[in-house]
Amino acid sequence: xxxxxxxxxxxxxxxxxxxxxxxxxxxxxxxxxxxxxxxxxxxxxxxxxxxxxxxxxxxxxxxxxxxxxxxxxxxxxxxxxxxxxxxxxxxxxxxxxxxxxxxxxxxxxxxxxxxxxxxxxxxxxxxxxxxxxxxxxxxxxxxxxxxxxxxxxxxxxxxxxxxxxxxxxxxxxxxxxxxxxxxxxxxxxxxxxxxxxxxxxxxxxxxxxxxxxxxxxxxxxxxxxxxxxxxxxxxxxxxxxxxxxxxxxxxxxxxxxx
Amino acid sequence: xxxxxxxxxxxxxxxxxxxxxxxxxxxxxxxxxxxxxxxxxxxxxxxxxxxxxxxxxxxxxxxxxxxxxxxxxxxxxxxxxxxxxxxxxxxxxxxxxxxxxxxxxxxxxxxxxxxxxxxxxxxxxxxxxxxxxxxxxxxxxxxxxxxxxxxxxxxxxxxxxxxxxxxxxxxxxxxxxxxxxxxxxxxxxxxxxxxxxxxxxxxxxxxxxxxxxxxxxxxxxxxxxxxxxxxxxxxxxxxxxxxxxxxxxxxxxxxxxx
Lengths: 258, 258
Hints:
Radius of gyration of chain A: 20 Å
Largest sheet of chain A: 9 strands, mixed
Number of domains of chain A: 1
Distance between the termini of chain A: 63 Å
CATH topology of chain A: Stationary-phase Survival Protein Sure Homolog, Chain: A
Helix content of chain A: 25-40%
Oligomer: homodimer
Number of strands of chain A: 11
Strand content of chain A: 25-35%
Low-confidence stretches of chain A: none
Largest interface: A-B, 80 and 79 residues
CATH superfamily of chain A: Survival protein SurE-like phosphatase/nucleotidase
Order of helices and strands of chain A: EHEEEHEHHEHEEEEHEH
CATH architecture of chain A: 3-Layer(aba) Sandwich
Number of helices of chain A: 7
Shape of chain A: globular
Structural class of chain A: alpha/beta
């Protein structure tokens, strides 16, 4: 099995390196990852400027890997279009430092990187560790390696990304695995208004996460209760449930001259 | 009606200024928009550095508007949390220079800005003009003003964004309005590998849009056939159709020690 591995915390991050070692036990892994941390900024694709990609050696691997001055989506695109000699069977991103739950998925680099993979018809697994202060990525990495083996066995549902979140607990405290829907999670942002040394105003967003209590079936609920969460995700944002209502509003009348 | 107006092409763009004038006929409009073009880069929220926001006067308006050195999502967040004295009834973004169709919606600044609004329970309308070489935003702006009036009358379905795309045609050539689902659209990226003056390699992504032929009901199809497209969008990416299949894969076995 050939795996393309990326992340948005940067190629030297503990999460991706632990995962690389675990995946190397079961697959031929090539890392193509951002040269530095790209989380929370710089998503999307870089089109207005050139992208640098440098061959790097990683500890314990005699393979060629790539450090890219670009976003996670740039990494996947560049890997698939030009850097990899053969297409991979699977794209994996992670282990992300910090959770990627509910609406966070839309903000994260995961979605745009996954779309790049899926345009090419590839399955995608995104793995995140809930607690970024819990620095032991071993369980998360080993779980992911087993998951990839299982997925290869079962086959992938088309156009689906599996978004995996792992609780930040010791392995023996993890209660099980739940297949979940995306929950709701948002940030309460007490915007702070400050003055710079010249007396001019500036603002700083101070975001605290609020996990909205779900019905028990959400990714947020699963991880909070010490379960590994696996959410199948697709990229059709159409709200089919309201299409008929919206049609009944009579938009055609808007085209008439008043 | 109080409207918060933003965009990702920057506050001085023709699209937003034409829309501001049209909306001012029907509502009390405050513009809070990026100081320069942010499309295709810099989405998400700015948390790692301060954000500047400056009061600006706009031609023909005696109101106070804001130019923000930040992303569209920053603009909406800052507006709702601190800049606006009263919450708006509706958030509008646009008129975007260029279409925002199918999977593009996920890449665009629209989604993260809309989430900011929706967290606060506000309806959101995103308007884009298909052809960015067609510089007459008058029809798009007038249509949007009428749409906002209609929406106020009909009420909004909860947690839904209306994504509106307007063909780049003369008003009299537009055939009608279609309520659509999101189609598929992707970029063929011939990655160009070049050498810099020092002989080092760099890459440049050259993206050409490919509109995938839909079943006739998609936003891509509507705009291509000269219809205004209105797509109701929600933010639950869960792929419910495959949840039972995924559950049957037996993830629990992955937790066992080998």
